[in-house]
Amino acid sequence: NKARMSDIHDAVGKRIAELLGAESAMVTSGATGAIIVGTAACMTMGEHNKSERLPDTSHMANEVIIFKSQRYIYDRSIRAPGAKLVEVEHISEVVNTINDKTAMLFFLLNRPDEDNIDVNAYIKIAKENNIPIMCDAATTVPPIRKISDTVNMGFDLICYSGGKGLRGPYSAGLLLGRKDLLKYAKQHSSPNHRAYGRSMKVAPEEYLGMMVAVEKSLQFNEEEEYQRQLKIVDSMGKNLSKLDGVVVSAKIPNAEAREPYIEVDWDEQYEISPTKVK
Questions:
Q1: Which of 26, 32, 33 is nearest to 9 (CA)?
Q2: Measured between alpha carbons, how far is 221 from 243 in angstroms, rounded to an integer?
């Protein structure tokens, strides 16, 4: 039996939304793809005459507010469909920066403490001004429960990588959020022939792969996996520390994310060949 791509898209999105407690969901071409179609959705809000003109956004709300401290390499994904980034340094500046050209507020979730930003206050500002707020949470999983926690924070759109902690198709991703915004985001996505994101295709096996990845992740024993990773880090550290001039230390940068790794320092006066390391 054959199935239409649009039907697969909708059915998988519905299932993932149910699993994660989101209002709506869709599979995208990675977290970057999620940012692109999500931003396009917030600028066009379902108006086809605006959608047809992307990336020309001169006659629509096209500004996205972002904290200066949160500028990063992937914010080019926000600019890709024609959005213009407007920087603020402190949350006190946000309200006065909002105007009739503001299409979206943006937040990078993996480092709110580092950036000293009151995320709840930021979300409240978005709600009070009726402006969608997008969150890039691509690197915040594991643990899988953080997805539902983030959904409940009140973001209108949330972007995730399909690979990394979800262990799904590396070329896929997720966009979760408001039902109306997800509907508009789908208009900018394949298989729609005239969509801005037509080139960012998602194959049937990626749709299904993401659904299975979410299902499996919810059943995954994260404590066992964490202990397994600690053993690997410990074993590598013991072997590397046998080399002259090498100092090894185990690092756990985020206790909740639980992603241990090894930091290796060596004295350059010691000559260490690849053969000796092996």
A1: 26
A2: 35
Q: For residue 276, what pLDDT is reported?
A: 65
Q: Is residue 42 a contact partner of residue 181, using CB atoms and an 8 Å limit?
A: yes
Strand 173-177 with 157-161, pairing: antiparallel
Strand-pair category, 133-136 with 102-108: parallel
Distance CA(159)–CA(66), nearest Å, equals 16
Computed over every residue of the chain, the mean pLDDT equals: 89
Residue range 5-219, CATH number: 3.40.640.10
177 with 17: CB under 8 angstroms?
no
Confidence of residue 132 (pLDDT cuts 50, 70, 90): very high
Q: Which amino acid is at 166?
A: L
Residues of the chain with CATH 3.40.640.10: 5-219
d(CA 26, CA 45): 17
Would you give the DSSP letter of residue 75? G
Q: Given 3-state DSSP classes, what are the helix, strand and coil percentages for the chain, each rounded to the nearest 5?
A: 45, 20, 35
How far is the C-alpha of 237 from the C-alpha of 32, rounded, in Å?
Answer: 34
DSSP for 155-219, please give it: -SEEEEESSGGG-S-TT-EEEEE-HHHHHHHHHTBTT-TT-TBTTS---HHHHHHHHHHHHHHHH
Q: What does residue 224 show for φ and ψ, rounded to 5 degrees?
A: -65, -40
d(CA 274, CA 43): 53
Write down the pTM of the prediction: 0.86
User: What 3-state DSSP class applies to 263?
Assistant: strand
